Amino acid sequence: MHGIGPGHANARSTIIDAIRAAGVVSRTRLVAATGLTGATVSKEVRALLDEGLVVETGNAPSTGGRSQVLLELEQSSRYAAGLHLDHDGVTAVLLDLGGAVVAEQRVRWTSEVAPQSVVDTMVVRVHAMLDGIRAPRDRLLGIGVVSPGPMTPGEGIVMSRPAMRGWVRFPLAERLRQASHLPVVVDNDATASAVGELWTGGARGSTAFAALYMATGIGSGTVVDGVPYRGASLSVGEIGHVCVELDGPECWCGNSGCIEAVAGPGAVVAEARAAGLQVRDSGLTVVEAFAEVVKLARRGDRTAKRIVQRSAEHLAVAAQTLCSLMAVDLLLLTGTGFDIAGDLYLPAVRERLARSFAAHEGPGVRVEVSRHAQRSPAVGAAALVLQESLVPRQFNTLLAIEPDTVVVPSAR
Ligand SMILES: [Zn+2]
Questions:
Q1: What pLDDT digit, counting tens, does each position of 6-29 carry?
Q2: Cβ atoms 252, 303 nearer than 8 A
Q3: pTM value?
Q4: Helices 11-22 and 38-51: crossing angle, nearest 10°?
Q5: How many angstroms does the Cα of residue 241 sit away from the middle of ligand 1?
Q6: Where are the domains of the chain?
Q7: Which of 26, 196, 299, 345 is 20 to 30 A off residue 114, Cα-Cα?
Q8: Residue 295: phi, psi to the nearest 5?
Q9: How remote is the CA of residue 219 from the centroid of ligand 1, in Å?
Q10: What is the 318 CA–ligand 1 centroid distance (Å)?
């Protein structure tokens, strides 16, 4: 806890994080897990009980000594709102402290909308969700908002595929904060999806895991020891833009032959249409058109099956690259793309990982489709709020200190 690297900001956040990770836990096990003293654990737990964040939930079976009172987070004590802004609408969810989705709303638009009016709609929807479950407004910790592509708190969406260019540099976080008077956090959809697994129990038992995200685009998020890996630049996790064909098709990112351009949902749809398959080309989003190709494959259409299989084999390369670089023990396939076709992609991913370098020396990587694949960015956005407000981390800043300029007195 005191070495170089991210540590919890204080004893309180260490304890909340340990209870979250365990689900249900005794004070004795908290002492063992956190390295804090028994007195500190007792004092902090008492404060959390007083605030209503934690509840006592029965006893552990006695093992000779005194039986142990068990603790867990009080689900309905706090809520976080998560918003997933995409090119054709917003998905909004309310997550409770136990990681359950207790409300969900979707807003769709068919023509371009002004960002400010979307902000106003978002705030109305957040309040409507809270009112819908009869929760007092002061139980809402904040709003998380995510979008495809890199985002910063100050600048909003920094870079985007063509469909969302109207949002680039719109100060989304600031405007949402002004309209809601709540704390607002932002991140990209793939990183948020990974953080969501942390709070909804999808990554329980893992020390390092990754989310491979496929919707219109392809990305990834990695969480190590409970901390999302953010790197030093906004392009972290852009596994969809790893080149797999040097002379491949041009990608919107400026390169060519990227996995996304070669085998993402858009490429699957284009290939299906070029092969003469009947996929409607008006009024469908890329993901909806992808779902039509997958449907044809499930019905046994051989061309559709071949196209989906080829895509799966490329996504398996993305998965293997990610797992090898980050040495994760768990890979979760998530996003609407895997919600639609996860079972068709899973065998190719598992097979490639079973043959990979990492599989030769240990238990290998567990691969699952996320339980929240369809709405993982919104769930993740809400989880970011829980993360930032309840278990803030303190990063070691010593390594980033610039050396002072040495002024040499001029010789006379
Ligand atoms: Zn690219």
A1: 678 789 999 999 998 888 999 999
A2: no
A3: 0.89
A4: 80
A5: 4
A6: 7-73, 77-194+378-394, 207-370
A7: 196
A8: -60, -40
A9: 11
A10: 13
